[in-house]
Every structure is written in C-alpha cells, then in structure tokens.
Amino acid sequence: MGKSFDELIKKVAAIPMKKVAVCVSQDSAVIEAVRAAKDRKIADAILVGDAKKTKAIADEIGIDISDFEMIDVEDVVEASLTAVKLVHDGKADMYMKGLIDTKGFLKSVLDKEVGLRTGKMLSHVCVFDIKGYDRLMFLTDVAFLPYPTLEDKVNIIKNTVEICEALGVNNPKVAPLAAVEVVNPKMPVTVEAEELHQMNLRGEITGCIVDGPLSMDLAIDPEAAKHKGATDRPIQGDADILLFPDIHSGNIAYKSIVHTAELVNGNILTGTAAPVVLTSRSDSMEVKVNSIVVASLVAEYMKNNK
Amino acid sequence: MGKSFDELIKKVAAIPMKKVAVCVSQDSAVIEAVRAAKDRKIADAILVGDAKKTKAIADEIGIDISDFEMIDVEDVVEASLTAVKLVHDGKADMYMKGLIDTKGFLKSVLDKEVGLRTGKMLSHVCVFDIKGYDRLMFLTDVAFLPYPTLEDKVNIIKNTVEICEALGVNNPKVAPLAAVEVVNPKMPVTVEAEELHQMNLRGEITGCIVDGPLSMDLAIDPEAAKHKGATDRPIQGDADILLFPDIHSGNIAYKSIVHTAELVNGNILTGTAAPVVLTSRSDSMEVKVNSIVVASLVAEYMKNNK
C-alpha cells in the first residue's frame, strides 16, 4: 500500500469519512478543493468564515456549497479560533488554511486553549508521487523550519516516519541529503547526516532506516547507486524520506521537481494533535485535494494510535 | 539562438571544428563520447593515455578509434600534464577528464607551467534544456564551489554570463535562489541575494540582469510569477542563470531535475584559459557529448574575444 496517490485514495475510501475545518472560508481555491474532496467522497468540510462572502465567491465560480455546514464568523482571528476549536474538540478531524496569512493561521494552531499543540515540534511533509517511480517520496522540511539543528532533524524524522506509517509505508528508509555521499568535515551537513545514521544504529531513532550522507542520485535512483558501486549501503536509490539540509535546499528542490517533472503531490503540517493542511496560494486545486487525502489518512492513524 | 541543444549543435556545425585533449583516455565512457562527437562532426579528439589499454577498451566495446591522434603516456600524472599542455599550447581547444580522479585532473588544470590558470576563479556551469521550457537554463554552482561567499558569487555570475554569451544568450537574467522571494535578515542567503541585485543596479555586475532573492517558481515559471503577483520584478519566471546558495542546494536540485524530468544537459568548468569538460562517472554518454558541444562553442567564443 501507499505506493501512489491512487492507492491512497482507495485507502481513504475504506475508512470512515473525515471532516476538515476550514479556517476563513472565503477563498475560491479552497472552496473548489473541499467541493472536489466531498464529490470524490474523500472528506466533508465545515466552512468557518464570512458566510456571505463565502457564498458570493461560490456563486461566482459556479460551485454549490449548500450541503456544507457553515459557521458565520466575520473577524479573521475569531474565525481561526472557532475553526481550530472544532478540531480541538473533536468535531472535525483536520484543520485547513483558507484566506488567512500563514502567521495568523499558525497562531491559531499554536493557541494554548483551543489549538492543536502537543509536546512535539512542528514540521512540514510533502508527499510526492513522481512519474517513473514506483513509490511515494516524503520530502521534509521544504517549507516550515528554516535551519534545523541536529536535534530538530531527529524530530523531523520522527514526525515524518509517523506520516509514512499512516500512509502504509512501514520502516521507511531515510536519506539525509547532501551534495556528496561521503563525510567531509568541511561540510557540516555531511557530519550531521552521519551522526543521524549512527543515532539510528544506536537505537536513538527508531521505526526507520537512516543512511547518510546521501547525494540525491544515490537516494532516489537505483541505477546510479549501482553505477557508483554503493552496494554496501542500506539505501540503494530506494529512499522513502528525503531529509534536506535546510529550507533553501529543500524548497528549491521541491519546486524544481514540481515545475519540471510529472507528478502528483500533497503537503501536510505535522507534530500537531490533528493533521493540518497548510498549502500555499500557488498550489493547485489538486494539491489541496491531495493534501486532504493525506490528512484524512493521518487523522485515521492518529485515532487508532492514541 | 541558444534556446535548445539542437540549436547549439547547429551552431557548432557552423564554426571551425574544435579539438578536445582527453586526459587519461583508457575510459570506455569517454571513448564512446569522443567517437560520437566526431561522428556527429561536433569535435575531434587527441587521446592522451595508455595507448595499449585505450585500444583494448575500444576493441572490447566495438569502437574504432584508428582515426584519432593518440599520445602514449602510461603514467597518469604525466598523461594529464601532457594532455593539458596540448590545450595550453593551442594544439587542442579544450580539455576533458578521462580515467583520472577529479583531484588529479584539477591539479593539471591548475599547473603553473602547462595548465589553464587565468586570474579568474574557477566555477562549474550546468546547461539544462528541460522539456516544456523554451530556453536553456544555466545552473551554478552545483559541483565545484562548496560554500561561495558574496564575492565568489559575483565571480560565479561573471563566469556564467560569459558562457551564456558564448552560447548566444545575451544579457541573461540571473536568479539568486532562496526558499523565499523576500529579504529576511534571519536568512543570510536572502540578504546576499538582495546585495547581488543592488550591485547589478550600481553597475558592479554587468552584462546581465540580477533579481534576487527569488524562489524557484518565480525564477522558472511565468505562471507562478503571475499568480504571486510579482509583476514589478525584472524576472518573471524567465531566469536564464540559476544561482544556488551553496553546493548542497545546487547539487540536490540538479540531481532532482536530472532524475525526475525529461531533459538534455551538458556541463562545463569555467574560469580557465580554455573550456574544461569535467563530467562525472555517473553522467551518461549523451551528457559527455553535450558537454563537448558547450565546450566547443565556448572555445570559439574565447578565440574571438581574446
């Protein structure tokens, strides 16, 4: 399971339908996405925001939203707290960003009373289903943590391993990426990657196999691994989790693939008490729907593994 | 001109045929590449290395090399100095790595007596012709300089602008990449990118348009630029040169694209007195031939712009 988005969608169909609480619903792209998600029986939604504006936008783009539950809150901050509280109280299963800036949205996620805080660090995971590859790839962190420390990277791995498991990818292979596949003291990234590998061997990072440092070709291309004679390494071009050195390398690689390859992808924020869909303006409707697919499976997993 | 490798190959056909000096020629991938380059009338080659071994390898892979000039030098270091001297003395136009490690190869490039030193800093340029894009993209530096300083980045831009001009891309648009497109003091990469932009405005970097910081989507995708409302910026998804923050981000993005998109590419080392082809083991024969295409045009340009 979990080898493609098609399989994830089948998996979603087999679990009880989840509900997403939309934070500030007067946003055409989000309205389109929740409509598509409901039509495809992926998830239902509660629209929290300016009800009048939300209806006007839906009318304008010719989308019927009369079958969605709506909670009318004009003020953006109040709407965000109302929406996140639905998830906090278990009335919705996941939380999705609408027409609110990322800062305000995260503020509601982290609200001490009605938010989705846990003891865990937050991190972002992007799930790629790239044409030509027979598995999903989990890219992290390409959007949230600017310069993760070694400790942060351990937490990123833990968060992402959980997402993998939720999607049916067990004991994932983790590739801490660098420009090269050997440790070079002049490149601190490679030293940290080796340390993550050692921590995994010592049982300090569990539920996965960590092999680093790895160059991108050794991480994703079995042919390159064979050609470079890396036959003694745990990862042979078959990494599941791609761990980036920092947000620049992660974000640039993420967008490089999105804008040049054929692929399907969905993104999620994790480390929270419930899955959070934090897509960006420039993400397509499909990316938003796919993110709801991922969030639904993670919500189900969290429910069963409390 | 210069919009695709097909056009570059036509351009090569219109200039006097160049000659590549191969450094340690007993390498099957390199023999295949120079054979293909000669057959396609792209470039001739002088094979410097162990002549007996070189012939044996050629026989083994069924390639006739009897029409190539060969210089028999068994010792690797001696062979490298002999080969680079051919370029230094103008008997060959460009220099190509064969069965020698990168360190030994670069040592010959930098040799004070017979090498290809100039006052310039060396940098690596990778030329991409990606399916779906109507122009060439120049990625730098994805392989040579680990952590370029601001000054290094200025030199990288200068080197790469020259390569663009040699390939018919005049006044190229340079995108200093980052995870975000706004300056954030907490992300030094964005501050440096803005400084490069200012240096360009002040006339300290010429022959190009520098606009930074830029995220990858704003750099290469006009739709994303439109969607994000970045209509006042000099670069609107139409960057020619992609300048990476460091070798990790560059190398990971480079390999991400190579291993997931459909593309044609060739790589070159520049800042030298003559073009240097420094491809890696895992590069395909086509990449090696394309690198000779790029090197030939750069050699012609250097000759005309001495």
Protein model, in words:
- Two copies of one chain form a homodimer.
- By secondary structure, chain A is α/β, with parallel strands linked by helices.
- Chain A is built from eleven helices and eleven strands.
- Chain A has helices spanning 5-13, 28-39, 51-60, 76-88, 102-109, 150-166, 188-201, 216-220, 222-227, 247-260, 285-304, and strands spanning 18-23, 43-49, 69-72, 94-97, 123-130, 137-140, 173-176, 209-210, 241-243, 263-270, 276-277.
- The radius of gyration of chain A is 20 Å and the shape is elongated.
- The mean pLDDT of chain A is 95.
- Chain A binds chain B through residues 130-133, 142-143, 146, 177-180, 186-187, 189, 215-217, 220-221, 224, 227-228, 244-261, 263, 281-282, and chain B through 130-133, 142-143, 146, 177-180, 186-187, 189, 215-217, 220-221, 224, 227-228, 244-261, 263, 281-282.
